Amino acid sequence: MEQPSAAEIIANLASQIDHHAISRFNICRSDIWDGAVRGFKRGTFSEKDLFVKFSDDGGRLEEGIDTGGPKREFLSLLMKRLSQRPIFDGPTDSRYLVYNSAAVRENEYSLAGKMISVSIVHGGPGPNFLSKDLVSYISGQSSFNSSVEDIKELSYRDIVIFQILNASSLENLQDQMLKNSTMLQTAGCFRNVTSVQEKHSVVREYLRWYIIERNHSAIERFKEGLNCLHFLTALQQHPAVMAPLLCHLDKQLSAMDIEHLFKPDLSEAGTNKRNQEEKTISFWADYLLDCEENSSGATLEDILMFATGVPSIPPAGLEPLPQLQFLVDSKFPMANTCANILKLINSWVSLNQKLKESC
Fold first, then answer.
1. What are the φ/ψ torsions at residue 341 (nearest 5 degrees)?
2. What Pfam family is a match, any one (predicted)?
3. What number does CATH give the domain 255-358?
4. Which of 98, 119, 183, 306 could bridge across to 124 with cysteines, CB 3.0–4.6 Å?
């Protein structure tokens, strides 16, 4: 039987959202986390539409109704901020949960899981930073491929692991095992080794304990939050499709991706307006290439964020479909992140400079 796509699974999860009510979030960009926590902990938060209001640094509410853009921007900024929380450790693109007593008291593990599930199901980005081994464990899979490099801080523990890995003989390995028996017994991987090749299984078992098993209670709380909107259930039912949404993706946006994503709203063929619009499209395509080649002051992610409120294409896709429109009398490009519309100006020099400034 053919697997449903991630977008189809998310659309099914999103059907639970009550569009006749809202959960409101009052957010200041200088402290995304504080506003997010207040919103998610509010007693009235439930499976409703999200309504996000940003306030500027002066405390004035920005004008405009949230029909998607502010919500996507908020969720994008929240996922970035979440990766920096002390409940996570490890490389920036492969982070795992660690036990933190203050976070337990604040129920932060469950909250983090809820933030991720809500972001994905409501059309925002995935976290893009979780360890594949952590996600594999959460989704009920058995694979484990972490290495010593996934343990962030070089300490006595890491030196011991390197010494075990570098043991060149059975005698040397046995000596290292005995010298560090307390640490290995704590992890449940101390034993009598009979081959130098067993060093690899000892290290793998230790790393699995260090990353997964010693943090079991934190992971269970995280899973509780992740099942908001039944996301965890979908992850466990379709791990091959859903697990990549939580992990770092090596694929970068390309100029072609953005060019294909935004469909131009063109005037009637043969008119002067149409001729100018087609010329502007060529400027736009060249500008995207400049961004891809790092010869512009902006990145392709900046362009997408400016136009849609997200720096990458969300797992659920973008709705409505992104569109290019054309300005005649404006000196600046404009964007409507709620409608996913980018409005371009018709001068190459101005387009290049002003898009860089706007992004």
1. -115, 130
2. HECT
3. 3.30.2410.10
4. 119
Contacts of 299 (CB under 8 A, 6+ apart): 291, 359
Q: Are 75 and 52 in contact (CB under 8 A)?
A: no
Q: Is the peptide bond before 320 cis (omega within 30 degrees of 0)?
A: yes
Burial letters 302-341, b for 16+ CB under 10 A, else e: bbbbbbbbbbbbbbbebeeebbbbbeeeeeebbbbbbbbb
Strand partners, 55: 28, 61
| 192 SS3 class | coil
CB atoms within 10 A of CB 237: 14
Give the pairing type, strands 334-336 and 341-344: antiparallel
Contact at 8 Å (CB) between 106 and 115? no
Side-chain half-sphere exposure of 16, counting CA atoms within 13 A? 15
Catalytic residue IDs? 338
Phi first, then psi, for residue 202 (nearest 5°) are -60, -50
What number of residues does the chain have?
Answer: 359
Per-residue model confidence (pLDDT) at position 64: 43
Q: Which residue is it, tokens 């043991």? A: 167
Q: Could you give the residue ranges of the DSSP H alpha helices within the chain?
A: 6-14, 32-41, 69-82, 101-105, 108-121, 132-138, 156-165, 170-179, 181-186, 198-211, 216-226, 231-237, 239-242, 255-261, 272-292, 300-308, 348-358
How do the domains of the chain map onto residue ranges?
6-128+216-241, 148-211, 255-358
List Cα–Cα distances, 76 to 39, 212, 309, in angstroms: 16, 27, 8
Q: Nearest CA to 315 among 5, 6, 3? A: 6
Q: How many CA atoms lie within 13 A of 86 on its CB side?
A: 7
Going from the first residue of the chain to its last (359 residues), give the mean pLDDT of each consecutive group of 10, the final group possibly shorter.
Answer: 91 94 92 97 88 71 61 96 97 95 97 98 97 97 85 67 94 96 96 97 94 97 97 98 94 94 97 95 94 90 94 94 92 91 81 67
Rounded to two decimals, what is the model's pTM? 0.90
C-alpha separations of 246 from 67, 132, 208, 220, 274 in Å: 25, 8, 19, 17, 42
Q: Could you tell me the fold of the domain covering 6-128+216-241?
A: Hect, E3 ligase catalytic domain fold (3.90.1750)
